[in-house]
Predict the 3D structure of the following.
Amino acid sequence: MPMNRDKRISVYLADDHEIVLKGIISLFEFEPDLRLVGYTTHSGNVVPAVVQLKPQVLVLDLGMPGIPGGELIRTLRSIEGLRTQIVVFTMHKDISFVVQALDDGALGYVIKDADSFHLIEAIRAAARGLVYLSPPFSDEDLREYREQLRMSKMGIDLYEKLTPREREVLRYVAQGYTNREMAEMMHLSVRTVEKHRYNMMKKAAFKNRTEVIQFALRRGLILPPDAPETSRQQP
């Protein structure tokens, strides 16, 4: 009779921190559908090991010394016949890293301080050919960032997407005014100001007030803190 084929998901780990590797390995002890086939702490070992072992999923730390993580992903994706899927496991929380990793060919992106559940689910999803993002990222974040990049390449200013009221709110937010203060100056209800603020943040893909301030400074909508005139003035 033919031998039963091992249906567990084969996984190879690559991370330069042994404590991280030990933590992941310990997780596998409680996941009967996962099978560890090897691991390394050196970036130079990744491609040869994956080519030899052909795991279904590679869990890769982007920040390993030596060969850049993005280069490793692109190299593996370029090898004809290699079907190993890649899950990035990293400390990088900037959305630009997520987009670049997916564009290079990864299917999963998991932040190291996310719950361990997300790494396990990302491995399972990648084995099925599905994209998986751990919090705080979402598909909507990716769409907004890609749209922002597209418009930037086309020379379209995000500011032009905003209505006059939303532009006014943007300047006030950058200057530090509260919703109630803005409502008084704009002769609107607080609820209406909140709506304009929400729309402005969403259209421009701002995540917080710091990003609003940085944008306003770059575009000259407010004065820098060390300017002689006060930057907290009515536009």
In short: The chain has two domains: 9-140, 157-218. The longest strand covers residues 34-40. The mean pLDDT is 87. Residues 139-153 form the longest helix (15 residues).
